[in-house]
Amino acid sequence: GVEPKAHPMGEYRKVPLERLTQRLGLAKYDINAPLIETAPVKTVTIPLKQHVGTPASAVVKKGDTVSKGDLIGRIEGDNLGAPVHASISGTVVSVNGSICING
């Protein structure tokens, strides 16, 4: 096939970023957006079915202590699905289609 190459006048055909931002209607979003700290999360409910596929099987039970990042649900065999991990450290308060953790 033919090897693609840049247009010879390409260097002189560029649109300035500010003008492109205006033309795309994005200028109103170009603002200073500092990070705002929020209160820590104390309770989470994490579904065992994350997307299309088989729901994960819980590997924790009510009363277990978990750390952020711990595996709390795994996919059995060759089934399509997603393993589930704890998003906060705390105590498992329920396991019923989802896992509820109090931090």
How would you describe what is shown here?
By secondary structure, the protein is mainly beta. It has one helix at residues 17-23; strands at residues 43-47, 57-58, 65-66, 71-74, 84-85, 90-95, 98-102. A 4-stranded antiparallel sheet has the order 1-7-6-3, with no helix packed on it. Strands 2-4-5 form a 3-stranded antiparallel sheet, with no helix packed on it. A hairpin with a 2-residue loop joins strand 6 and strand 7 (98-102). The model has no long low-confidence stretch (mean pLDDT 92).
Helix content: under 10%
Q: What's the overall geometry? A: elongated
Spans with pLDDT under 50 lasting ≥5 residues?
A: none
How are the strands of the biggest sheet laid out side by side? 1-7-6-3
Could you outline the blueprint of secondary structure elements for this entry?
Layout: H1 17-23, E1 43-47, E2 57-58, E3 65-66, E4 71-74, E5 84-85, E6 90-95, E7 98-102
Antiparallel strand pairs: 1-7, 2-4, 3-6, 4-5, 6-7
Task: Fill in the keyword field for this structure.
elongated, mainly beta, four-stranded antiparallel sheet, 7% helix, three-stranded antiparallel sheet, 7 strands, 103 residues
Summarize the structure.
The protein is mainly beta and 103 residues long. The chain has one helix at 17-23; strands at residues 43-47, 57-58, 65-66, 71-74, 84-85, 90-95, 98-102. The longest helix is centred in the N-terminal third of the chain and has 7 residues, at 17-23.
